């Protein structure tokens, strides 16, 4: 197996990019000419209505699904250039639905995140990486538990920990906060910020627009398979755009202390 171990890319480098990517599934266009770049040192929030194509776009960027048209780059190379192991050394993915049918323990599952480094010098970090990931995801107390015995929110944190243990410079998180309480939602986004501050790139799908506004450096809005806005949260998260995209009247107010947009659906 060919294995080119990645060097860490400096901050501000484009680590992943989709260029004019289109994809049809079951005869329906799901992604339609999507271009998006992801840079090290930034948290990119991907938002948009149910069915907009967010998970599909993540699967294309992460190399789990080849597009019909367009190109995808990872670590400066066309994605098909890398073997599956080389891809896994460069990006980790927390999927929206984690289904694990065998009775694996939490610690076993998190340790699976280390598999790309098997047989490389970085395998020496396996134990530390697993311990740190369990700690960061606040699941150390569950380490011996069987995955299927955990609650939805606890399972989500195990999936997160597995992705963290992989220690790739690019992290894709698909609705990591969907099942989480307020404390753990904030903790996940804070973690994303800290990772980005350490030169990682984090792409996070969230439905809570206030989490996106409060934590993301950039927000990309996907609607019907197209990127309809991409930029600074203050410029992107406008009442006009959100009202149209979500087909519900939305108000946006500047936070009195920080000026960050506060998004409120009209009730
Ligand atoms: P999101 O994550 O934004 O909610 P997805 O990327 O999961 O949306 O899905 C986008 C659209 O693609 C949805 O309408 C979904 O039903 C459709 N879709 C996903 N997978 C398939 C498939 N295998 N065949 C047909 N349609 C699919
Ligand atoms: Mg999805």
UniProtKB/TrEMBL annotation:
Pfam families: ABC_tran. Keywords: ATP-binding, Nucleotide-binding, Translocase, Transport. Transmembrane segments: none annotated. One of its GO terms (molecular function) is ATP binding. Residues 16-249 form the ABC transporter domain. PROSITE patterns: ABC_TRANSPORTER_1, ABC_TRANSPORTER_2. SUPFAM superfamilies: P-loop containing nucleoside triphosphate hydrolases (SSF52540). It comes from the Bacteria. This is Heme ABC transporter ATP-binding protein. It comes from Kribbella antibiotica.
């Amino acid at each position: 197996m060919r294995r080119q171990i990645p060097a860490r890319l400096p901050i501000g480098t484009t680590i992943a990019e989709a260029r004019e990517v289109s994809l049809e599934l079951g005869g329906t266009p799901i992604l339609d000419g999507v271009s998006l770049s992801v840079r090290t040192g930034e948290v990119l929030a991907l938002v948009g209505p149910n069915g907009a194509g967010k998970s599909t776009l993540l699967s294309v960027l992460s190399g789990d699904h080849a597009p019909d048209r367009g190109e995808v780059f990872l670590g400066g190379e066309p994605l098909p250039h890398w073997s599956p192991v080389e891809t896994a050394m460069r990006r980790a993915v927390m999927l929206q639905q984690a289904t694990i049918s065998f009775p694996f323990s939490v610690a076993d599952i998190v340790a699976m995140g280390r598999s790309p480094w098997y047989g490389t010098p970085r395998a020496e970090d396996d134990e530390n990486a697993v311990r740190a990931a369990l700690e960061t995801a606040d699941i150390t107390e569950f380490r011996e538990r069987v995955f299927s015995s955990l609650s939805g929110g606890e399972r989500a944190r195990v999936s997160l920990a597995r992705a963290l243990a992989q220690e790739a410079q690019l992290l894709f998180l698909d609705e990591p906060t969907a099942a989480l309480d307020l404390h753990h939602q904030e903790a996940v986004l804070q973690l994303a910020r800290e990772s980005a501050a350490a030169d990682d790139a984090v792409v996070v799908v969230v439905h809570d627009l206030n989490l996106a506004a409060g934590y993301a450096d950039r927000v990309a809005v996907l609607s019907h398979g197209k990127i309809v806005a991409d930029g600074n949260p203050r410029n992107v998260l406008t009442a006009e755009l959100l009202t149209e995209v979500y087909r519900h009247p939305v108000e946006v107010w500047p936070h009195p202390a920080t000026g960050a947009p506060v998004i409120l659906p009209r009730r």
